[in-house]
Each structure stands twice: as C-alpha cells, then as structure tokens.
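Sync notes, pocket subgroup
Present: LS, DG
LS reminded everyone that the earlier model was apo-only. Rerun requested with flavin-adenine dinucleotide included. Inputs:
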Amino acid sequence: MAHYDTIIIGAGHNSLVCANYLALKKKNVLVVEASEVCGGLAASYEFHDGFHASVAHQASHFPLKIIRDLRLTEHGLSLSRNHNACIGLDQDGHHVVVQGNKVSGVPDIELDAYKRYHDLMIRYADMLAPFWLKTVPPIGNNSIPEMMAFAELGLKIRLLGKEDMREFLRMVTLPMYDLMDEYFSHPLLKSVLSWDALIGSKQAPRSPNNSVLQLLYRMAGDSHITLEVPALIDALQGAAVSRGVDIRTSSRVSNIEVEQGSEGISATGVRLESGEVFTADRIVSSADPKTTFLNLLGAEHLEIEFTNRISRVRDQGLVSKLHLALSGLPSFTGLTSAAGRLFIAPSLEKIEIAFDNAKYGESPVEPVMEITVPTLGNPGLAPEGQHVLSAHVMYTPFKHKSAWDEAARTGLTTKVIDAIETYAPGTRSLIIGQELLTPVDLESRFNTSGGHWHHGDFALDQLLMMRPTPGAAQYGTPVSGLYLCGAGTHPAGDITGMPGHNAARKILS
Ligand SMILES: Cc1cc2nc3c(=O)[nH]c(=O)nc-3n(C[C@H](O)[C@H](O)[C@H](O)COP(=O)(O)OP(=O)(O)OC[C@H]3O[C@@H](n4cnc5c(N)ncnc54)[C@H](O)[C@@H]3O)c2cc1C
C-alpha cells in the first residue's frame, strides 16, 4: 500500500495550488480526483463535437504572488495586464463600457461620480487585499501571532483616516442598490457596477450586508491581470507534475479512513470507490464542507454541534451555465467586437425581479446574465472560424419547483437565447450545439454540493473566522490530520487559489 506525506482530495485549482506549495517543500503528495480531468469547476471539456468550454470562464483576481511563487509562467501561463471591458448591453446600441478607472456611454455627470466611487472602492479593496491571503484567527484566547493579524487589520482600517474609516464601516453593510443610488443615476451603469457584488451568492441588489464585501474581494489586488482559465489549469497541473506530485484522475474517494487514538480520531488515508486505499500523514480536502464532513468522513466521527453547523452551511447554487457552439461570430448591435464581459441586465430593478422569481423556486421570467465569447482570446476552443458563447445566468434556483424537469430546462434555455437574440440578432441561426448546466447539474457533474459557486454563500456569517464554520476555519479541522483547502474555506470561491495557498501555509507550519 502506497504511503504519502499528504493526500489531497479533488484536483480543482485550489487543490493544485496547495499541492504545488507542498511539493516545493519536498512533500510527497498524491492528488485524487473523481473526474477524468483536473480543474474542478474551472476544468475545460468538450461540450459539443470540437467545441470546448469551462464552467468558470474568467480569472480576474488570481494573485501575482501565487503566479510568482509557483513560477507558473515557466509552465505556459501568460498574463494579460488589461482590465477586461465590462459592457452593459443596450438594445439600441447605447452601451455602457467600464474598464478599470474608465467609463464611457454615460452622461458627464456620471463620469465625475465614477471617478470618486472608483478611487474610494480601490482604496478599500487594497486595504482588505492582504487579509484574503491570511489565516483569520479564531475569536478568543489568541496567540501573539494571531493577535497580530487582528491588529494589522485594525491598523489598516485606522490608516484610512477618520472619515474614510467611518465611510468604510457604513458602506460595507449597505445593499448595492443604495450604494449605487448614492453615486449614480444611469440604470445600466448601476447594473454593470453591481454585477460582481451579486453573482455567485444568494444576493440581490436590495439584499443588505454582504454584497459590497464580495465586490471588494473581487476588486482586490491584482484585478488588472486577467488569465485564460484553461492555460491556468494546465500551468498548475504541469507545475505540480514537474514537482513530483502524483495526480490520479477518475479516482473518486468514497471515504476518509480514520484511526482511533488515545486523544481522539485522526485521518490516516482515503479509500477510493475502486476499493484501493492510500495512506498519508495528512489528508487535505478541496471538496466542499458538506461533502468532506458528512459524506467522506461521516457524522459519527464528529461532535453533534459541529455536524449541525456543517449541515446548516447555505450552499444552494443560484447560477446556471449555458454554452453555445456557434458556426460564426455573434454580432452585438452597436459593438465592433464581442470581446470582454457582456451583461444583459438592463437595471437593478430587473435584477431584483429575477431574484424574486428564484426565491419562489421559479426560473427568472427575464433572465439576467453575463456573456463571454472565449474563442476570441483562445480560438483553439472551437473548430476554425467557429465560436463558443458562454453565459452565466443568474438566479436559477437549485431547488426549482419542477426539480428542473425538461420543460423548465427548455424554458430557461429558450429565454436566455431569446434575450441574446435581442442584443445580437441572428445568433440563434448560428447555434449548432448547446449545453445547459443548472445548479443541480453542476452538483452532479462537478461533485459540488448545491452546485454552489463558492461551495457556500459569501455571507457575513459564513466568512472569515466563520468559514465554513468555527472549528474548521483555519484550514485544520476537529479531526487530527484532516485539513480543508477548497472554496468553502477563507477567503471563498472564484479562481483565486487563495484557499489552497493559505491551507498549504497552515500545513507547512
Ligand atoms: C456556474 C459557475 C460559474 C463560475 N464562473 C466563475 C468565473 O467566471 N470566474 C471565477 O473566478 N469563478 C467562477 N466560478 C467559481 C469557481 O469556479 C469556484 O469557486 C472554484 O472553481 C472553486 O475551486 P476549488 O478548487 O475550491 O473547487 P472545485 O473547482 O469545485 O474542485 C473541487 C474538486 O474536488 C473534486 N471532488 C469532490 N468530491 C470528490 C471525491 N469524493 N473524490 C475525488 N474528488 C472529489 C471535484 O470533482 C472537483 O474537481 C463559477 C462557479 C460556478 C458554479
């Protein structure tokens, strides 16, 4: 029976980041992945003959630190130092374009407001940036290094000065709707600026408390660097293999093996569905918290209170993915190119109404969405001259009234394509293949509870030292030798590698 220093469950990008850091320190690492390929929700795969896509289509705040530490450019990763254009689509072609500190397509009065808003938000995002790469200490009885982490955050906030500090504390709990109203009046501009505050969690423009924080998370640090998702996964996988990491795909873990000692239980290995058992000094799981603790470990090995808290983690996804295989390039009215992130979300009110439908288990009557055409940056994803259109469709409930029967799936697909057709007439006639992934499909295809973007809502009660829950929020768990390294841990999901980075630091310490 093979024995390793560390076995990592799952080969999502966080697991690959963690494996690379451990391998750099000469640890003997095995990664076991249920799917046929690496990458998890960021994996590229063929969804129609010759057409490839990944569920996550955009990596916009992956830290330069990780790229440098792991020397990913030596493994084929190239960095584009441009902010992606974010384009709020208008039916008549009067689009709003936001790109970094620039905005166009809005009246002059909005330009001044945007400058004030952008400068302030970047200041706050920069202030928070270092904390996403830290372990957030638990509350109470802290060691001196842990106290220093709190002190550093306190100092950073103080350094803002009294007025900005007060404004930060006020703004961070505001609903996006109110924040946008304070600065802007253009409906499309408000939608574009709110998108990253909302997508992936159970939040709508009028929801209080979390959305501004999620936006600052996504604006943090190196957000001017955009990466091709397939190239990032290839680089992480290539780097890991070159450092000696053993990666086994099509290897689903059926349970984590434990041993009872005098001081409680400890994790000693994994058993695969095939029956094979591998042992290690420590087991690290990048699977979501419910899968890790309730399915792979088993509640019988946990305190009831901890099990209850894990059972309560809110992780029902709200985002669906539509991939279209197109025989040609879609042409959006008033745009010379479909490059960038294109939003169909005419106003905050329309976004809120789509959320209201989801609250009652219904598909949105008028879906709001983000579209990209990844073949514009990476023509190899489709046969020559043909294209992939990739759409994140917001507010499609995991628990659909119909349990996502065929009629609900067809209804949603038709509505999304109708909406795209309104802004890019003729697109429907280019469709030669399509794939819709609802949160239920995402759960079963990608082994992620609830098909949730972040493996658990980005919400104040599930963040920082409470992510996923006290007792497992510093990457260690109540079970000796068992660690977490996926999106369900601090700071959260998105293609950032930060949970994997932080978990590796904890393990190596
Ligand atoms: C619809 C959608 C669109 C998204 N779009 C974007 C985007 O454009 N940009 C962005 O930054 N983020 C996006 N995200 C979020 C992002 O994809 C995730 O937050 C991120 O990929 C999580 O990475 P991870 O490595 O932590 O986990 P995952 O990618 O989920 O990887 C976990 C891995 O563990 C494996 N696993 C689970 N159980 C087992 C088992 N028993 N045995 C073996 N292996 C197992 C899974 O198969 C999986 O490969 C999107 C998410 C969704 C749902």
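DG: The first strand starts at residue 3 and ends at 9.
LS: DSSP finds 15 helices and 17 strands in the chain.
Action: DG to write up.
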